[in-house]
Fold each of these.
Amino acid sequence: MNHPIIDVSGLSFSYNGTPVLSDVSFRIHEKEFVALIGPNGGGKTTLIKLLIGLLKPRQGHVQIMGKTPGQVAGQIGYVPQDLNINKSFPISVMDVVLMGRLPFSRWTGLSKKDTAAAISALESMNMLDLRDRKIDDLSGGQRERAFIARALATDPKILFLDEPTANIDSRGRSELFGILKELNKTKTIIVVSHDTMVLSSYVTAVACVNRSVHYHDNAEITEEMLEMGYHCPVDIIAHGLPHRILKTHGNE
Ligand SMILES: Nc1ncnc2c1ncn2[C@@H]1O[C@H](COP(=O)(O)OP(=O)(O)OP(=O)(O)O)[C@@H](O)[C@H]1O
Ligand SMILES: [Mg+2]
């Protein structure tokens, strides 16, 4: 039971020779709810892409359930950042969610099982009544929930969400995190978000990403951590002790 679900060791990555992540190591255990926080350009999206196998490490390795990300692709759900930029998507909500089943159906056509899984994913996101709506005709928050439903259509063990609340108002944010908390009963959740105060009552661990990664896997934030200077203001805490406020890790 103590095996990590995600094991990152000595991971480094550069885009065209420009280092973005250097010597990153941490472990995530099953059913954790991890917030990835950090400044713009700090490497959060890059880290997620490395974790799910969309990018390959320059050095080090990522293991998910003891395998490479590619070997467990069917167990991973991913909701990318900036879904709202690419707006021209003239298909229905149901079709978008069914697309999430394609890794399983392998183009042999969709079965009743695929439809049932899509409906169940839509239900879990409170989106079933909008199943026939064109994805273009949704609000930003509804569109986000449709894409989360797509990521859930394979019933993944791990769900990665890259800034899912960027286009959502504060009520919608709490609602969305409430849904994620429910999903967290059966899934490991890893979410990039700047909504640190809203997140505070949900997360079990916090990873501060800024070239290096500082992983807080318990509520004890020590003086030492504060002095390490990760340039990453932390106003959330881990392990369900909400609203303990840490201003910075130091140096700011
Ligand atoms: N495809 C790419 N080619 C070259 N450089 C890139 C590419 N994608 C990202 N970068 C650079 O890598 C760095 C990290 O980017 P990344 O998108 O991982 O940051 P982030 O923490 O997700 O930022 P944000 O909070 O703005 O989403 C940035 O300096 C960015 O400009
Ligand atoms: Mg990003």
Amino acid sequence: MDIEPDADIEKFRAEVTEFLDTAPTPEIREAGRKTTSAFAPFEQAMAWQKILHARGWAAPSWPAEYGGPGWSIEQQYVFASEYQKRGLPPLLPNSLRMVGPLLMDIGTPEQKATYLPRILAGEDYWTQGYSEPGAGSDLASLSCSAVADGDDYVINGSKIWTTLAHKANRMFMLVRTSREGKKQQGITFLLLDRVDYPGMQIRPIVGLDGEPEQCEVFFDDVRVPQSGRVGAENDGWSVAKHLLKHERGGSAHSPALHERIRMIRRAAGDTPSPFGGTLADDPVFQRDLGELEADVASHEHFEKLAISGHPVSQDPAYPSINKLISSELTQRISVLMTRVVGLDGLPDQHDALHVGSDTAPLGGDLALIAMPFYLNSRATTIYAGTNEVQRDLVARTLRA
Ligand SMILES: Cc1cc2nc3c(=O)[nH]c(=O)nc-3n(C[C@H](O)[C@H](O)[C@H](O)COP(=O)(O)OP(=O)(O)OC[C@H]3O[C@@H](n4cnc5c(N)ncnc54)[C@H](O)[C@@H]3O)c2cc1C
């Protein structure tokens, strides 16, 4: 594989950098600086998606027939790298990277025509309703039920950890439609056109970092049209497995990891060391940062191989391996961040962290985000399937 820059790529890079340097509003840049999670501040991320969409660049990996820019793999990687170098907020993943690609693969013509343009334009945001209080790793045990009644399903039960349900206008979800046979065989995948159907209640959960990012969702005789079903009734497990490939493996994480390391390096150069000079001169710190940087570079190579069509991307273990490595690197980076900011990371700067806040932050940019980022990133090894379960999946794949 060769994805070294050539003349055309450099011309493309110049076009991208010119746009990324001028198009984002100050609020969008601020949202990028204040992103402490995989999910950037909602309003600014959606506003930024609309700007990118107007340029035709909201979904770099989407095929041209669905409104993507039709970029090569090299162009997509250049775009991701330049994007991250500027610390811009990531676009929210559920619609563009999960339900959108799923519908391209297996949606009906009507579902594609209705939803894909709205997803691309940032007019809709989809929340993911899979997990339940009794069904996380063992997702097939889910019990939120849907009973067919005329042209509708009537849903009863609840979901939990439903990220950004309080901001979304649509939901994709798994429901139990049969209790016969194996538990995987009685599950159906549904698209909900609204999250405010009568009988639906959304209750935000405040996370460790003080932010209400996840939610509980309750369904009490909620009537939804059967036309929202993807795939056949009771075949939702195979639809969900298909979508999980996009959730775990569908993007390159290394450009964002590199940007976090650059932030750490910059801050370390401004931080006095108790042994003289700055923290960046400290040999122990240099060793730890160097190790981390080497591991990120190695992961970058792995991701580049995969996105350039190397057979590794077809390996059934690839999504799990990518998820494992990138989530653990994220956590290591978050630990190093807290080491750099030291005591400056301890004050609760919740107010200053909100976009548009007039509360002046204490310390530099890194001090503002280090602790919330550290706390939020505890969840990276839990969501999208816990790392213990991913290791189990990898082991089983290798044994097969
Ligand atoms: C920040 C965050 C965002 C999330 N967003 C969403 C979302 O948008 N939509 C959604 O539907 N869900 C979401 N989730 C839920 C997430 O998918 C589940 O939390 C996850 O699958 C784990 O399920 P659980 O919490 O029920 O833990 P459990 O399944 O109860 O696991 C508890 C512990 O047991 C271990 N364990 C369980 N089974 C095994 C096994 N077979 N082998 C080894 N170890 C095992 C786990 O690794 C874990 O350490 C989110 C979770 C978090 C934390």
